[in-house]
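Problem 12. The chain below contains 329 residues. Write out its predicted structure in token notation.
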Amino acid sequence: MKKCTYCGTEYTDEVTECMIDGQPLASFPPEPKPAGNDFRDENKTAVIRIFTSHDAAEVAAANLKAHGIQCWLNSDDAGGMLPNLTSPGGVRLLVPAADADAAIALLDTETSPSELNQIEAEAIRSASPEIQPAKKLAPGQILFGVVVGIILGVVLCLSYQWTEKLGIKTYYHHTEDGNVDEAWIYRDGHLVEFRQDRNLDGKWDHRVYYENGRAVRAEYDNNFDGRPDEWWTFSDDGTDTMQRDTDFNGIPDEFCTYKHQVIQQLDIKPDGSKFVTLREGFQNGVLTEIWRGGDSNGNFKEVVRYDPFFSPISANTPAEFQLLFPSSK
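Solution.
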């Protein structure tokens, strides 16, 4: 046997130089084999043949294994993953140094067709499975996948938007000077309140409250003292009511009724009185009559009616009372 003086790879006697690094070989006496030694040790194997392809090397290896000779394949192309590196170094067939002569003789012997078929079959069984190409999808399958992807994307987007709306969120509007003058408050994505600071003193003096997206009531602080003095209530049929505290003592004394935002009637109840002392009636937003001197029984001392130009046209009192102007003027 011969061994490479550089890498230590063993060869048979007919090889003159190392097939790996081209260095000269030196003869050496065979080393005794200790009991239980692993024959896969690199220093106790011999390269008996180098092939230009993995297929030819695997057939030769299968032939040796079929005859009971242990062998290994070695290459510098990452097991065939880098085929451009196969040709320079080749695929090396290694056997235990003790079996080198028998392996060479077996490979040099012509193989019968039946043995060749058996060897190829064993090589195919022992070879690693090839990667199967991916199946091509039918146009219908591709369309179905696209539709499902779009639906899932929409559902995820809506879920995200719904989650973002949960809880109470407030959005502010700023003036050019950077002051906050308006605010919108949302609960779970629904508007519940609008606030406004009309005189920019840092206090809210106008509020509107919403239910199911509809304004149901509002309040104003018209003297900006931090307390509301005007209250509105809105209904679905267009009939709205307003109460106003004209002397700012916290008790409303004006009560108005509106239909589709047009005033219909004004009642005066000063200082929280239980009965109306003065009533004004309107038609299409124009004052048409004034009732004065109301008592606790709902009776009025005088009633004056006016034409569209605010001229008295009738009264249930002496003539001098017809020339009186309404208290709202």
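Discussion. The longest strand covers residues 180-187. Students who got a different answer should revisit the alignment rule from Section 12.3.
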